[in-house]
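Hey forum,

I'm writing up a methods section and want to include a predicted complex as supplementary material. The small molecule is zinc ion. I've pasted the protein sequence and the SMILES. Can someone with a working setup run it? I'll credit the forum in the acknowledgements.
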Amino acid sequence: MPLRRLLFPLALLAAVLSAQAPAAKSYFTLHRLAPGVYAAVDNPGSSAGSNAGFVIGRRAVAVIDTFQSVPAARALLAAIRGRTRLPIRYVINTHYHIDHVTGNQVFADAGAVIFAQRNVRYWIHTQNLKFFSHPTPAQRAWVAGLRSPDVVYTHGVTLYLGGRQLDVRVLPGHTGGDSAILVPDANVVFTGDLFWGHALPNLIDASTAPLLTTLTQLSRWPPRPHAIFVPGHGVIGNRAALLAFRGYVAALRRLVAQARARGLRRQALVAAVLPELKARYGNWGFFSHFARLNLLETDAELAGRKSIPQPPAAGSTGG
Ligand SMILES: [Zn+2]
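Reply by user p_vandermeer:
Happy to help. C-alpha cells for the complex are below, copy them as they are.
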C-alpha cells in the first residue's frame, strides 16, 4: 500500500489526488455524542483515513482533525453546514500525520484558524513523506502542499465557542506533538491517536512508556463518570475501552521485554511473540497490518535504537 504504515487503500489513491469522490462511498459515520458534539468515525475503506469531529458552541464551531483526503474534508464541512451556519472558527490538528491534516485547507478556506502543538507545524512537511515507500511526484506535492497550522502552542490552549469551551492538552507517547481535547460540559474527550478503539495502533513515532502514563492521565481527565473517548482510529469507547487499549500497550511491552531477556531480537522475536499477541488481540482492528510492526518497533524502542521525530531547532518556523 502506498502509505506504508497508515491505512490507505491503493484503489482510492488516484481519486484522492484528483480530489474526486469515490463513487457511492460515504466517508464517515456521524455520531452525536451530546448536544452540538459530533464524532465522524471513518468508514473502513474510505479515504477519510481517520476519525474526526466537531463541536458547536453558541458563537462558533471547532473541528478536530481534517481526514486524509480533501473530498472527505469537504463532506465533513457539508455535514457541519447541515447543522449550523455559525462560523467554523477553529481547527485543531491532534498531530502531524497525513491522515489527520490533509483537509486543513478546506477549513482554512472556510475561514478557520488552524491550531496544533508547535512541532506539528514543522513535522507536517518534514515527516509525512516517510509514509510512502517510494513517493511519486504527486505524493511529494501532496505532502509539500499540506496546509500547516496558523497558531501553535507548547502545552495546550483553551478555546471558547460561546457557552462551552475546549480544553486542549499536549500529551506524550504517540508522536511527541499530540493534543487531546476535552469538552468538559459534554464529558467527551477527542484523543487523536493516543487512543485507538479496539484496534492496534500505529507506533511508528511512539514512545510506549510515556504512552502508558498518558493513557492513565486521559482515563482520569473527564470530570464525571461515563465519559466518552473518541479515538483517532477505530470505534468510540468508554473508560474501560481506553484502559483496554492501555492494556494492549502494556502487554506489548511486557512480551517484547521478556523475549529480549531470552536473547531474541527482530524477526526471531516477532516469530516467538506473535502467536501470543494474536491469541489475545487477533480480533482487534488492524491486527494484520500493525502487529508485526508494533513488535519490531517496540523491540527497537527497548533496545534504544528507535528513531523518532525530533523537535525543530530553536527559531525554525517550519515554513
Ligand atoms: Zn492516525
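Some notes you might quote in the supplement: The chain has a mean pLDDT of 93. The pocket of zinc ion is lined by residues 50, 97, 99-100, 193, 232-233 (CB under 6 Å).
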